[in-house]
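Protocol step 4 of 5: obtain the predicted structure for the target chain.
Materials: sequence only (see below). No template structures provided, no constraints applied. The aim of this step is simply to have a reference model before the mutagenesis design in step 5. Sequence pasted as it appears in the construct record:
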Amino acid sequence: MKKIAPREVLPDDEMSWQDVEPNFRNWICAACAINRETGGADIKEFGGDPKGALLKRQTTQYMFASDWEIFSRQDLIMTIQDMMESVTPEYPKVAKVWQYLRIIQNAGFGYVAEYLTLKEALNCALAAGQKLQEVVGSWEELAGQYLEACATYMGKDETLTQRKEAYQRLLASEENPYELVPFDLQLKKCW
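Step 4 output (structure tokens):
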């Protein structure tokens, strides 16, 4: 197996997750909430975990290596670019939702893994989020399409059940992420 690249020097970026405009932050978190809730991650953090914890960085790098064959910053950047470019008008709605959500999630994971600066990760999430808003019109529709995509592309009943249960927990939560910000929020660069 190819080895994970040594820690890379990233461009300067003094920005922190808390510096990001709150509505944009809430939108990104809501978009990824089912995945984060299913995995037991923090739904309020970009990438599911705060950046800077050595174990989380290494765990996320290992996930990229084992699940995505991403071993470096360059591998991740190329993968995200390829994912964005691969979505064509002929893709069915469910495939577009699947791909755009995976881009947002990988951008967050890339930030936690320290493959991307926060600004780079936010740029990826912004582009995919805007595309996602062109495909679906509400949080409910997004969740439905995402769960359908999980059934289509993951094909594991247990995983699908866990994601459906996670979605129901989120809806019932006092901190329901879908009530914090409208799905049709105008997503724009605020950094």
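Step 4 remarks: The mean pLDDT is 94. The helical segments are 22-31, 33-38, 54-68, 73-86, 93-112, 118-135, 139-153, 157-172.
Proceed to step 5.
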